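Private note to self, pasted from the team thread so I don't lose it. Backbone tokens:
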């Protein structure tokens, strides 16, 4: 928790996944994102089922450990798991709850499938300013009015960058951070519960060590990922033209955009600086113009939020998971209550190990065989012997009819 508080990004992805094999239960997890855009697992718990009650219990413990209150403005992103939304409203009523855009697309595919509708959805979700978002929604309305009405039923603050607040210093639309964490622990999900929990603790310990090895090789003021992103922003900023209004306000014009930048408030009309804490191409162009006009602006990296600084990243990972002794050295508990396993209703049949496929995934898998090649299902087979369709040479028994007879006579005459 100490390390997560030092990151400076009050955003957590929350998710649940099931235990495999004969050991029942659901693993609830909360995963953050550090200044290098890597996952930062914060907490996890094993519960009997994924319900509103268990999510509420999990979020209450998380809130207490973070030192938050019910009025805290925290940001979460999820796939809208069962029971999570009412639990979130009860524990974090003022929090910002984002929905994974890929999950929204999966729900949408039952009615509107294809790249056309997918591109329309993602185009609207990526827009960072309201005017551009309104244009994208008008395009959806023109293409498919029913889809437009369906999207309007989802709160804009849950899936649109244009309506995100800048508190989290992150504009992510997907809950990939939880998917990455679940993929790392998938090998232990069919193990006994204690073994599984030990596996997670050891994984998190090794991960911190690996990150420290990477940090030792890093140079420069920013983290490696932030450096890569900011270098691309500076390339785009070199193509901008700047009109200085006063020492704080600038009009920056590009090929397809013209935005007002306020360096004093660290804002831009495109809202990318507001959302991420990293100056956008318009802001970088304005900062360079300040230097040209003999205004002490320093290098553009100095305007990047502390979240992305290498020094902040190193402080976060100074917090390690302390080693523990073996069970034979533990102090016996003096609790008079005997803990018993929770009640669990065993489902009929063999326990499932594979997750439920999303809509459309089964159809996609059927199109490919085990070798990764397209199947011939749905294609018309033509016989190379008689030239008719519906069979091949090996199963040809002269069922070609007149065409087969004609070809035989032609062969005999030859």
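Design output:
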């Amino acid at each position: 928790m100490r390390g997560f508080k030092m990151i400076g990004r009050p955003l957590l992805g929350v998710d649940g996944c099931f235990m495999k094999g004969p050991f029942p239960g659901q693993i609830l997890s909360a995963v953050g994102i550090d200044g290098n855009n890597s996952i930062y697992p914060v907490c996890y718990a094993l519960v009997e089922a994924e319900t509103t009650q268990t999510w509420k219990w999990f979020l209450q413990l998380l809130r207490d450990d973070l030192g938050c209150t019910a009025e805290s403005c925290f940001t979460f992103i999820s796939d809208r798991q069962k029971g999570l939304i009412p639990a979130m409203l009860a524990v974090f009523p003022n929090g910002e709850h984002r929905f994974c855009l890929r999950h929204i697309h999966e729900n949408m595919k039952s009615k509107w499938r294809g790249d056309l509708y997918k591109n329309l959805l993602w185009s609207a979700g990526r827009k960072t300013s309201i005017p551009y978002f309104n244009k994208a929604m008008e395009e959806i309305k023109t293409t498919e009015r029913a889809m437009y009405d369906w999207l309007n039923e989802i709160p804009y603050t849950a899936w649109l960058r244009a309506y995100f607040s800048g508190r989290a210093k992150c504009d992510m639309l997907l809950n990939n951070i939880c998917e990455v964490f679940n993929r790392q622990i998938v090998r232990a999900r069919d193990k006994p519960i204690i073994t599984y929990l030990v596996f997670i603790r050891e994984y998190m310990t090794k991960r911190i060590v690996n990150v420290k090895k990477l940090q030792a090789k890093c140079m420069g003021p920013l983290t490696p990922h932030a450096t890569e992103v900011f270098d691309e922003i500076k390339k785009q900023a070199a193509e901008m033209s700047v009109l200085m209004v006063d020492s704080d306000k600038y009009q920056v014009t590009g090929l397809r955009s013209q935005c007002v930048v306020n360096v004093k408030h660290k804002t831009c009309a495109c809202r990318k600086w507001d959302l991420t804490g990293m100056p956008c191409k318009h802001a970088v162009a304005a900062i360079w113009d300040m230097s040209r006009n003999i205004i002490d602006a320093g290098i553009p990296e100095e305007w990047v939020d502390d979240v992305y600084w290498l020094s902040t990243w190193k402080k976060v990972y100074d917090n390690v998971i302390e080693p523990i002794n073996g069970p034979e050295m533990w102090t016996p508990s003096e609790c008079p209550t005997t803990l018993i396993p929770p009640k669990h209703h065993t489902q009929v049949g063999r326990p499932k190990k594979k997750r439920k496929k999303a809509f459309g995934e089964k159809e996609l898998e059927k199109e490919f065989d085990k070798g990764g090649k397209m199947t011939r299902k749905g294609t018309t087979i033509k016989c190379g012997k008689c030239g008719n369709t519906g069979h091949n040479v090996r199963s040809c028994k002269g069922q070609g009819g007149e065409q087969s007879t004609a070809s035989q006579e032609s062969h005999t005459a030859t």
